[in-house]
Design goal:
Blueprint (H helix, E strand, L loop, with lengths): L2 E6 L7 H14 L4 E6 L5 H11 L4 E6 L1 H12 L6 E6 L5 H5 L6 H7 L5 E9 L2 E3 L2 E5 H8 L2 H7 L1 H14 L3 E6 L4 E6 L1 E5 L21 E6 L4 H13 L8 E6 L1 E5 L5 E4 L2 E5 L2 E13 L6
Parallel strand pairs: 1-2, 1-3, 3-4
Antiparallel strand pairs: 5-6, 5-16, 7-10, 7-14, 8-9, 8-13, 10-11, 11-12, 13-16, 14-15
Helix pairs in contact: 1-5, 2-3, 6-8, 7-8
InterPro entries: ATP-NAD_kinase_N, Diacylglycerol/lipid_kinase, Diacylglycerol_kinase_cat_dom, Lipid_Phosphate_FormReg, NAD/diacylglycerol_kinase_sf, YegS/DAGK_C
Family: Belongs to the diacylglycerol/lipid kinase family.
Cofactor: Mg(2+)
């Protein structure tokens, strides 16, 4: 008997999860014989629900919420021998993984896709003993994200992060940072290090334009001594592509990287605060499968 678990964060997207719960359940019922609906009430609920689904041999787990909810679901299934296929109904502000998978940001459209969307392989990342689905940031952006208010996220979306990032570039000197991988060694000063799994970072879908969701690679960007006006000049490339070729940005690909610093630099994983360096980051190639429109690359 085919089974799916629908995990809904009722507070995501101005409580859109509650509004669309019935449609999601009815749509999944056309594909699965049993649909188990769970609503989260507190942090880590989604992880526990997803872990139960994996251990109970469910066929699919659908995350209905923002990036944080999706991250929790991935964490719940990543270490299990049986890993259900992931489905996503994006209700957050940025929704980077959904963008990379060409999943519509409109909840109703995303739900309809689940009726017959094929499954495809999906890379995920691991930093020390934790998992991430899209991006690790070390340095200024990690600090800037903490300054973005809920109101800014709602009204400005990705632009809010860029505005706070510009402020950070203006107000801070670069940090000492060491990067060690088989493909790249760096020991110097940088404002920011970004390790991306997909093309979409912070809502900018051409940030890592060559990245694919199943290419088995980490895409690294070292932003060295970038001034305020340099950051402004880089904005068009951030939107349209070509950031990897911009001046004062070093780009590399690898499968595992160690990051260290003489300072206590903050880490941000998928938009949330995640401790400080040192940290080891690696990719888990095609570790999961995910429902994605057939038009996705």
């Amino acid at each position: 008997m085919s089974q799916a678990m629908l995990i809904i964060n009722p507070s995501s997207g101005k409580e859109l999860g509650k509004k669309h719960a019935t449609l999601a359940e009815e749509t999944l019922a056309t594909r699965f014989e049993t649909v188990d609906v769970r609503f989260t009430e507190k942090e880590h609920d989604a992880t526990e629900f997803a872990r139960h689904a994996a251990q109970s041999n469910y066929d699919a787990v659908i995350a209905m919420g923002g990036d944080g909810t999706v991250n929790e679901v991935i964490t719940g299934i990543a270490e299990q021998p049986h890993r259900p296929t992931l489905g996503i109904v994006p209700l957050g502000t940025v929704n980077d993984l959904s963008r990379a998978l060409h999943i519509p940001t409109d909840p109703e459209e995303a739900i309809q896709i689940l009726a017959d969307a094929p499954a495809r392989p999906l890379d995920i990342g691991k930093y020390d003993d934790h998992y991430f689905m899209n991006v690790i940031a070390v340095g200024l952006i990690a600090e800037a994200v903490e300054e973005v208010s809920v109101e800014q996220k709602t009204s400005l979306g990705s632009v809010a992060y860029f505005i706070e990032g510009l402020k950070a570039f203006k107000d801070h000197s670069p940090y000492p940072i060491e990067i060690d991988s088989a493909e790249k060694q760096f020991d110097g000063e940088a404002h920011l290090l970004i390790i991306a799994l997909t093309n979409s970072v912070g809502g900018f879908e051409s940030f890592a334009e060559d990245a694919k969701v199943d290419d088995g690679l980490l895409h690294g960007f070292i932003i060295t001594k970038l001034g305020f006006f340099d950051a402004l000049q880089a904005l068009p490339k951030l939107i349209t592509g070509g950031l990897s070729k911009a001046d004062q940005i070093e780009h590399f690909t690898t499968t595992r990287v160690e990051i260290r610093s003489k300072e206590e630099l903050p880490i941000n994983a998928d938009g949330d605060t995640a401790g400080h360096v040192p940290v080891t980051v690696e990719v888990l190639p095609q570790h999961l499968t995910v429902f994605s429109p057939s038009s996705a690359e």
